[in-house]
């Protein structure tokens, strides 16, 4: 209003704020009585532009008081002029003078108190202004803003017209403030809104959840405690109404905060524990709905499984997440999309009654989150709960990455292998698509330092080797892919070229196309890593004999070693296999099968083992002792005179003598009582005795042979008649006859190769011959 206006001009230019307020209030009341809204707006405009927004501090102060007085004078009608009343006051919130900011806060308090619910349409600008005052350095201003804040909270709590949709974008923006007072202000408002029954803030939780976790990492204990309360209230509400929760939209946020980027910050432990707890509840509440996002969940969960007791709670929550997620994978995840769509899920003829389906690769990496970098998480493709697809490709990618990472903890590696085993059991058809890429790393894992990791790894490899889903055609890639390996598949592995049982190398007992590939690569790894063979070789083979049939293991390895070009390794490997065969409890059934050779199958197995055992003469003799081929054992020992007798050779004979005294050969020692029917057993033992120098083993075997009774003293009348009438060779059925001469010739050929190789090495190496002249 200009100075020409007779109605109010003279009064607005009073220098004293008190008088100005009095006359302005009187004027406004008069205009209200006259229902003159134009003059009311004119008064407010003059107070705002010429006073509240003046350059002079006292004028600004008077303008603020005048605007508050106008609001009081307007009473219930103030709601019609709130925009004109509020805007100049909010502008003064940014004044550099703390006293002006305080008067602005006081003025706004009076305006809001009069208008009450009418201010809700202007809530966003009020909230924005208050969020700034909450961080004001002046205590008086901060105190005034707290009074205004409480008033606004009361109004929002009482009203049912609060526009949450319009408020959420502002809340999402302000929640990322780093100022502690601003954070306290934000979190207090969220707590209030969550407590109002008519306000469903849960629908908008995905918008603010990340910010809440950021606030949870605040250095202030009080703010962290309040934030924990807010998150706890949200989680309670989620448990009450899981059907209305947007799990997919919040899962990414949890994945990010389950991963700690800076372990030196103690607050990160709280963030991680809270996020992991939420993740556990999400999996349990949402069920199979979370399966499309399982790769991201595993990215967050698996590293936590290797935490020590300092993070015991987080580790336990992660373990629960992992266990619950694994239980969600069922055979129906092996279905084809066509089968799923038609509702007719018929299993294939060459696989178990499980189904197969296509998966979407939703694993990706994001560096956009505040405070986190290089964080992997998933991107859901659809929120439609009716379409649940297991993200198998993403899961395998995550598992494979953890296996390749040398820094992965032991418990995490075990969990990864458990996952692989579970997936091969539940979804074999789909998993065998990834076997070629997983296979090399699974073999490498056999060199792990942990026995438990190796056990789980062997379980996975055994399942791959024995699953019907892994069966391919005979012309498949299994054999072709290994054609360049040092350990070649023997030519006779599939079928023996000759008709004589002892001449052929029997075929490997049928498993699937990966079984023989596994055996080849395992022996290759033993060949390249001799320490692995020395330290873990027996352990690995014994466990495989439990997981797969022991006959399959020995049959296949014997086939492969038959054509092994590294003769030294072949001899060492045969010695290892022989020791396992003779001493391991896991091989009890196989030993009994070989002991009597009563079937054609057992004879074929003996011939298969014998041909490879020829790489190690002492092992060959022990195999003959085990199978009670004493005459052939004696014939072999007779040939030892033509062999190069080294220290290693004599040490093996020494070990054989020790084995003869062990429980494994109890039956052999008892057969020494029957001298007349076991003459070649005694001759063979005397042959070993003659090979040994006069060592402890010599004394042990010599003492045993001195205990052999005189056959004349052991014979009784009835027994002599029995022996005279007893047919020779009733022990072996006629169809198990073997050509022992051919076996001896094979032994000679193998030993000739070994001798030739040793001579070649001796000629190249500059060291004294280790041969002992007896």
What distinguishing features does this structure have?
38 helices, disordered C terminus, microsome, mainly alpha, repeat, 774 residues, Protein VAC14 homolog, membrane, 2 strands, two-stranded antiparallel ribbon, endoplasmic reticulum
Summarize the structure in words.
The structure is a single chain. The chain has 38 helices and two strands. The chain has helices at 9-12, 17-34, 37-52, 57-74, 82-91, 98-115, 123-133, 139-158, 164-174, 180-195, 205-216, 221-240, 247-257, 266-286, 294-301, 312-327, 337-342, 392-404, 410-426, 428-431, 435-444, 451-466, 477-481, 513-528, 530-547, 550-562, 567-583, 588-596, 600-613, 617-626, 630-639, 647-660, 666-671, 679-691, 696-706, 711-714, 717-725, 740-764; strands at 363-366, 375-378. It has a two-stranded antiparallel sheet with strand order 1-2. A hairpin with an 8-residue loop joins strand 1 (363-366) and strand 2.
Short description:
Pfam families: Vac14_Fab1_bd, Vac14_Fig4_bd. With 774 residues, the chain is mostly helical. It has helices at residues 9-12, 17-34, 37-52, 57-74, 82-91, 98-115, 123-133, 139-158, 164-174, 180-195, 205-216, 221-240, 247-257, 266-286, 294-301, 312-327, 337-342, 392-404, 410-426, 428-431, 435-444, 451-466, 477-481, 513-528, 530-547, 550-562, 567-583, 588-596, 600-613, 617-626, 630-639, 647-660, 666-671, 679-691, 696-706, 711-714, 717-725, 740-764, and strands at 363-366, 375-378.
